Amino acid sequence: MNLIDTTAAPAAGARAPVEIAAPLAARRADAKRSLAGLDRAGLAAALAEIGVSEREQRMRVAQLWHWIYLRGALSFDEMTNVGKGLREKLGAAFTLDRPEVVVEQVSNDGTRKWLLRLPPDIDGDKPHDVEMVYIPESDRGTLCVSSQVGCTLNCSFCHTGTQRLVRNLTAAEIVLQVMVARDRLGDYPGRDRAVGPGLPTEGDRLVTNIVFMGMGEPLYAYDSVAKSIEVLADGEGLGIGKRRITVSTSGVVPEIEKLGREVGPMLAISLHAVRDELRDELVPINKKYPLKVLLEACRTYPPASNAKRITFEYVMLKGVNDSPADAKALVKLLAGIPAKINLIPFNPWPGTKYECSDWETIEQFSDIVFRAGYSSPVRTPRGRDILAACGQLKSETEKLSARERLALRAMAAAAE
Ligand code: SF4
After folding, report:
1. Is the distance from the beta carbon of residue 217 to the nearest atom of ligand 1 less than 6 Å?
2. What pLDDT is recorded for position 5?
3. Quick one: 297 and 275 in the same domain?
4. Which contacts qualify for 184-192: CB closer than 8 Å, 24 or more apart?
5. Which CATH number do you get for residue 58?
6. Per-residue confidence (pLDDT) for residue 370, from 0 to 100
7. Would residue 158 show up in a list of annotated catalytic residues for this protein?
8. CA distance 283 to 271
């Protein structure tokens, strides 16, 4: 799913992308594993590996959990209530490393975009790059995370859909995206909290909400997504409640009910069309799970209620899905579903055949939906001065010549 499904050339005055880390070599066979991102069972297994008795594991897991997720510890040495002997054993066997940030972009409106390099999952394999975007508002900070490297689904308006699927992310790699964002923003107790235009001024946290709307279809990476949500929502750690975590799907119907029943986050549907014929083209998974089946799954989504509405994402494509008749059909289609509608102005990427609807058309569409009783915010395009579309940053980086890469690294070094 693409939260910011649109792209634009960097505007004059925008900060240039900064490449701040050299590409990793393939993982060495003797590389230590990071404990950051693991769930409690994973931590217990790691402790067992270094000889911590089963009796002691529960208490040690609680200590690690506190330091890793509540305090954002970067080293075992910070864990002052863990004995020196155990800290040394942990340090000899494991790390608390995060993925490297290879590109960071900061928009004039405070939106931040990071390209992360994940170590290869198989020895000798290449590292993989994924993106995440941070969108600050006065009272919240939303982090859009990826669930796959690439995507299989080829939605015709989406840039990520042009990239081949490499693999699903692990649960730990999803959790680590959130941890990296909080590291970069100083969003842990006792850290230097990031300041700057656009950052939240209310509340004590900078990352308050998570949306699975980055690269990939989260319900095709169900196990990783479900497991990562349990870690993210844990009140003794990162503490981002399930009402603040939204999973956005293109419509993988069999997993929708399961997600609601087993995990219970908020749900968003990448809808974009009200007729099967058009949705087959825009969101091809519709051929497998057409609108009727998809909307029935929404109607019966276990956590949905008036207080927990399902979000329907609708990208505005000129002359394609933006007529008043489409707006009326949308209202009819959603009858009986606790819903809100997000209208997203399309921002074309190179090679796309679509254009964004005129502003007047978007307003007219929004009015019809609003009069029918739905809140229908038109999502303000964010980060337009950086390469803000999911999938775009990765492609742009791949296109950089060796000389440009060197220049970026030199700039980064100079900025330190
Ligand atoms: S499912 Fe894949 S192709 Fe479709 S919008 Fe999401 S990332 Fe893009």
Report:
1. yes
2. 32
3. yes
4. 184/101, 184/104, 184/112, 184/114, 185/112, 185/134, 185/141, 187/72, 188/70, 188/71, 188/72, 189/70, 189/71, 190/71, 191/72
5. 1.10.150.530
6. 92
7. no
8. 8
pLDDT at 377: 66
Residues 255 and 188 in one domain: yes
**Protein residue whose Cα sits closest to atom 6 of ligand 1:** 1
Q: Which residues of the chain have pLDDT under 50?
A: 1-17, 19-28, 387-416
Q: Which stretch of DSSP H or E encloses residue 33? A: strand 33-34
Distance 365 CA to ligand 1 centre (A): 24
In this structure, is residue 2 part of a structural domain? no
**DSSP string of 78-144?**
G-TTS-HHHHHHHHHHEE----EEEEEEE-TTS-EEEEEEEPPSSTTPPPEEEEEEEEEETTEEEEE
Task: State pTM to two decimals.
Answer: 0.85
Residue 30 has a pLDDT of: 56
Cβ–ligand 1 distance for 313 under 6 Å, the answer no
Q: Is 298 a known active-site residue? A: no
- Short-list 111, 116, 145, 144, CA closest to 130: 116
332 phi and psi, to 5 degrees? -65, -40
The catalytic residue among 100, 131, 173, 396 is: 131
Q: What residues does 137 pair with on adjacent strands? A: 140
Residue 386: per-residue pLDDT:
53
Place of tokens 């964004």: 356
| Domain, as residue range, for 88 | 37-95
